[in-house]
Design goal:
- 70% of the residues lie in helices and 5% in strands.
- The radius of gyration is 29 Å and the shape is globular.
- Among the domains are: 140 residues; 66 residues; 150 residues, Reverse transcriptase/Diguanylate cyclase domain (Alpha-Beta Plaits), CATH 3.30.70.
- A five-stranded mixed β-sheet has the order 2-3-1-4-5, with helices on both faces.
- α11 runs antiparallel to α12, α13 packs antiparallel against α14 and α16 runs antiparallel to α17.
- By secondary structure, it is mainly alpha-helical.
- The protein starts with 26 loop residues before the first helix and ends with a strand.
- One of its GO terms (molecular function) is diguanylate cyclase activity.
- It catalyses: 2 GTP = 3',3'-c-di-GMP + 2 diphosphate.
- Pfam families: GGDEF, TPR_12.
Length: 625
């Protein structure tokens, strides 16, 4: 499924080539021109680039630094819409640091969103970028901008398979757009909702949403986005096996992409047509479309789509009896698979299926059977992993649901009290009936509360553990730190907070693999646990960061604790890691002061000390003295 790339100010990245840019004499006038270009719905991203370059030349000539950043943000989003990822990435690298100011907060968020999209396409980490966006939500007041942020967050949940959260955020985006009657934002959000319902196999619902979005886009005369919606419509018709309507919609989408010289749109549609013809066993046509689509995705290093196309090509070649050609393509597929993340193991399974099919075509039925057996095992593992991720997702939302349940129970109790007061003047029979009703309701509430308490205790225990290291997680260690902070405020006993960060942990993952990285995290957890007292506590604070809460401890004791942990770490033995690879860590520590109003102030100082330790060369500790 294709996603309509949305921006924060414009959401569409279109320009008006027929508009002559008026003479610009100030940054405010330039900003008006920029918004006018973004709000026009009749031209293509290619035409938009020409208009943006004109504005950029004016900003550079006048040395308007903020305007230079804002125009380049729009250019980045245009390149992203055209899926020219490398060009967009180079501009992000240049202008993201320059946008980190209060005046450019909106531009900064837009660049972070663009980086988030690129990272997802290229299988790079996205969690830190999402946290950055969440932290800035309260700073954004413009409903159009908020709608864009909610939409992108919803898209991230959709691409992770967390569909209920995706629906929640897309509906939040829809509310923002409806409040200001922003039709383009509404249409793009409805398209995203259609993609989500399609992922839930509710294809008829998806088609209804897409037809709504298509009508809006046609009213706006947005041909570029019309082609995307037609593409998605074709996908859903294909799922319903209505192949005639699917081909018709794909053909309309491809025609528009060719008219607009939308190379990305052509590639996506050609890939989809290849899949459609492959499903209908028209393998020669499928191979033709796959071959036409492949160069675009290779140029943009879109490994997932490259893999999907290659799998389709291999299957088509095998079905056509071209075993030798298929065997050569399998070798290329194997090299691609090694570059994929663990989360992409559905493609690895697809590769093994084709390997099994190829082995059978060559008469090697034993190898084919062994590979198919492994496919079955991997499918089971993938199902278990997805079930675990769904369980974690439920835990995250448990607290919110509990509060809502508590509020409903409280509201019901208040209603009952009010009812009893109103019935005091009634006859005895009516009073007894009301009393009986109250008793029944209270029994039901008591039963529900009992069940809720049992579930809460169960989930709370699970919600406070890090599943990889079995150490307390971020939530648990912060709760403990807060309790100790309150005790310290009352008793005046010393309390020290330390943050530990593993040095060069990314190199461990890159050089030795994520399984070795996981083993290192487990070993560090054991080393830290054996280095502190029973009344102290540590927990996993971030990816490779640990928060240590040391009760009745002064900063002068940190050196001893650091050396103790260092000694225990030096005794760690990890398989598949080179013996001369030094596993070290940096530590920052801060002690509670009388002026501290919250534990967050202490943690912040410790984090600043950690930063100094890392800047100073790592493998050391720094305290806030």
């Amino acid at each position: 499924m294709r996603i309509i790339i949305t921006t924060i100010f414009s959401m569409i990245l279109l320009t008006f080539s027929n508009l002559v840019i008026a003479e610009v004499t100030s940054q405010s006038e330039l900003q008006k021109q920029l918004i006018a270009i973004e709000d026009n719905m009749s031209a293509t991203p290619e035409q938009q680039l020409m208009e943006y370059q004109t504005l950029l030349a004016i900003a550079e000539q006048n040395e308007w630094q903020n305007s230079i950043v804002r125009v380049n943000v729009a250019i980045v989003e245009t390149y992203l819409a055209l899926e020219r990822l490398q060009t967009a990435q180079s501009l992000i690298s240049e202008y993201l640091p320059k946008s980190d100011t209060t005046e450019l907060i909106e531009s900064n968020v837009r660049l972070v969103l663009a980086q988030l999209r690129i990272n997802h396409i290229q299988n790079q980490p996205t969690s830190e970028l999402l946290e950055d966006i969440y932290s800035k939500l309260t700073l954004i007041k413009d409903k159009k901008i908020l709608g864009g942020i909610y939409s992108v967050i919803g898209t991230q949940f959709y691409e992770k398979g967390q569909l209920e959260q995706a629906i929640t955020y897309q509906n939040l985006a829809r509310e923002q757009y409806e409040a200001i009657d922003y039709k383009y934002g509404l249409a793009s959000t409805v398209n995203s909702l259609a993609n989500i319902y399609s992922a839930k196999s509710e294809y008829k619902m998806a088609i209804e949403y897409l037809q709504e979005s298509l009508a809006i886009m046609r009213s706006l005369k947005s041909k570029y986005n019309e082609s995307i919606i037609l593409f998605n419509l074709a996908h859903n018709y294909g799922y319903l096996k209505d192949y005639d309507k699917a081909k018709q919609a794909y053909s309309q989408s491809l025609k528009i992409s060719i008219e607009l010289n939308d190379i990305a749109g052509q590639a996506w549609t050609e890939q989809a047509l290849g899949g459609l013809y492959e499903s209908q066993e028209s393998y020669e046509k499928a191979l033709l479309y796959y071959n036409q689509a492949l160069p675009f995705f290779e140029e943009n290093k879109d490994k997932r789509n490259i893999m999907n196309i290659q799998l389709g090509r291999v299957n088509s070649l095998i079905e056509m009896g071209e075993v030798e050609k298929a065997e050569k393509e399998i070798v290329y597929l194997e090299s691609l698979t090694n570059e994929l993340k663990q989360s992409e193991n559905d493609l690895t399974i697809g590769l093994m299926r084709q390997q099994a099919k190829l082995s059978a075509a060559k008469g090697d039925f034993k190898t084919a059977f062994d590979l198919q057996t492994q496919v079955t095992k991997d499918l089971q593992k993938m199902h278990e992993r997805m079930s675990h991720e769904k369980h974690e997702e439920l835990l995250v939302h448990y607290d919110m649901e509990k509060k809502e349940n508590d509020n409903r129970v409280l509201q019901r109790e208040n209603e009952l009290k009010e009812l009893k007061l109103q019935q005091k003047q009634r006859e005895g029979l009516v009073w007894r009936l009301i009393l009986a009703f109250v008793v029944i309701v209270l029994l039901v509430i008591g039963f529900l509360l009992h069940r809720l308490l049992l579930n809460r205790n169960h989930f709370q225990q699970m919600a406070l553990k890090d599943h990889l290291t079995d150490a307390p997680n971020r939530r648990a260690i912060l709760q403990f730190a807060e309790r100790q902070f309150q005790i310290t405020k009352r008793t005046k006993q010393p309390l020290t907070i330390a943050i530990i960060d593993l040095d060069y942990f990314k190199k461990i993952n890159d050089n030795f693999g994520h399984e070795v990285g996981d083993a290192v995290l487990v070993a560090y957890a054991k080393a830290i646990k054996s280095s502190i007292r029973s009344q102290d506590m540590f927990g996993r604070y971030g990816g490779e960061e640990w928060l240590v809460v040391l009760t009745n401890t002064n900063l002068e004791d940190i050196k001893t604790i650091f050396e103790r942990i260092k000694t225990n770490v030096s005794q760690i033995e990890i398989d598949n890691i080179e013996e001369d690879f030094a596993m070290t860590f940096s530590l920052g520590a801060s002690q509670v002061e009388s002026s501290d109003g919250s534990i967050n102030e202490v943690i912040k100082r410790a984090d600043e000390c950690l930063y100094k330790a890392k800047e100073g060369g790592r493998n050391q500790f720094v305290t806030a003295i």
